[in-house]
Every structure is written in C-alpha cells, then in structure tokens.
C-alpha cells in the first residue's frame, strides 16, 4: 500500500466533524503564533547578528540549528517528504536533495543580495507543504494522469526554502567582516538542526508505522498537513496585501 491508496480512500474516509476539527486545530496553531513566522529570527539573535563582526563560528552554528528546529514550515515539508519513505537510503537521498537546494540559495541569496518579499517566499513555502500533501494523497495522478518527479520537486522546493531564510537574513545587515565563514557556519547549524529534527520524526514515524492506526490516519494526517499549508499561504498573502 502506498500514497495512491490514500487517494482511493476518498473524502469519505474523513468525516465532516474531522474536517472541522482539523481546520480548527490548524487555525488555532497559526493564529497563536507571533507576527513573525517561521523564518523570523528572535530579537536576541537579531541584535547579535547586527552587532557581530568577525568570524563567529559556534554562535552562528547555534542560531542555524535553532532556526531549523523551530522552523515548522521546513519540518512540515520534511514530514511530508518522508511520510512514505521506509528505507534509510531513500530518506537520505531526499533529505540531501532538500539540503542541497537549501544551501545553494541561502548562500547565493545573501552573497548576491537577491531580495524577495518575505511574504511571497513564505507563501510559496506554504504551497510546498500543500504540494507534498497532495502528492502523498495521489492527487496528481488522478488529476493529471501522471506522477511528477518527486526528487526534482524536493530539490526545487529546497531552493525556495533557502531563499526564505536568505531573505530574512538580509534584513539584519550582517557585517561583511567574516560574512562567508559565518554564513557557512549558519548553514552547517541548519543542517545539524535538520538532522536532529528528522531523527525525532523518524523515531516517532517508526513506532507509528508498526501500529494498525497508521493507515487509518494516514489520509487524515496529510489532509491536516495540507490545511496547515493553505493557512500559511493565506496568512502570508494577507500580510502582503495589508503591507502594500
């Protein structure tokens, strides 16, 4: 049984009351979050970034790891990516593709000063969560008649996620003194945080997959993830409109 089987279950697998509860939970989750969402940097870290000068490897590794562990949009996407991956080599391949994309655009975006609206890029990141949930539900094969390349999609969305962080970092005007080593250290921290978060997710998923409830709730879980992605998109697009 695989993701296509979830699509075969149809909407009947999710009762109206469950739809309501899922949407309510997701709405409370996002409305309860601070104004600056997943790519925000804490005020203390912001001040440190603005005032620091010279090579500071360990502090930037710490901030990178902290960003990833608290970056729920990254984690939601990774959760969707590994949802139906059972072999560690497959998990490693997809996570590596995501990390490659994330690394390239983080470094390129900051060094080349590529500026993208934080609202726009975070809305696109929300869309990546929706996309992966629909992919897991087998929607594209039903709608389009073929399966988009999942590896290519993971790499592309990794590139977009990296631009999200690069856009936020540029707002804090990092000192050019030690910029490249600090950026590399920050990215190393991001990958460390990703591995830590991924390890926890895999442990939980491993236990869950051994239970009979996994297939009963797999469809619901992906619908919940899709709902969260839509809410993130709506939040960011609303912010973009209001800020004009």
From TrEMBL:
Keywords: Membrane, Transmembrane, Transmembrane helix
Superkingdom in the source lineage: Bacteria
InterPro entries given in the database record: Put_HupE_UreJ
Signal peptide extent: none
KW Metal-binding (keyword) present: no
Positions in coiled-coil regions: none
Residues that span the membrane, as ranges: 64-86, 116-134, 184-207, 219-242
Name this protein carries in UniProt: HupE / UreJ protein
Source organism per UniProt: Halopseudomonas yangmingensis
């Amino acid at each position: 049984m695989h993701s296509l089987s979830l699509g075969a279950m149809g909407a009947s697998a999710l009762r109206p009351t469950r739809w309501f509860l899922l949407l309510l939970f997701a709405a409370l989750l996002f409305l309860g979050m601070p104004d600056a969402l997943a790519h925000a940097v804490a005020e203390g870290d912001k001040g440190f970034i603005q005032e620091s000068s010279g090579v500071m490897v360990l502090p930037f590794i710490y901030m990178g790891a902290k960003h990833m562990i608290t970056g729920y949009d990254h984690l939601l996407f990774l959760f969707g990516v590994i949802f139906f991956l059972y072999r560690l080599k497959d998990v490693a391949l997809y996570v590596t593709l995501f990390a490659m994309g994330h690394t390239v655009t983080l470094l390129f975006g900051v060094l080349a000063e590529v500026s993208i609206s934080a609202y726009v890029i975070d809305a696109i990141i929300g869309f990546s969560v929706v996309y992966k949930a629909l992919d897991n539900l087998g929607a594209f094969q039903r709608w389009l008649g073929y399966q988009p390349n999942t590896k290519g999609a993971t790499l592309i969305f990794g590139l977009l996620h990296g631009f999200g962080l690069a856009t936020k970092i540029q707002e804090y005007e990092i000192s050019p003194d030690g910029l490249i080593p600090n950026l590399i250290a920050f990215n190393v921290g991001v990958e460390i945080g990703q591995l830590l978060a991924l390890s926890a997710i895999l442990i939980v998923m491993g236990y869950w997959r051994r239970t009979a409830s996994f297939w009963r709730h797999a469809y619901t879980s992906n619908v919940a993830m899709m709902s969260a992605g839509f809410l993130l998109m709506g939040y960011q697009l609303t912010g973009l409109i209001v800020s004009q």
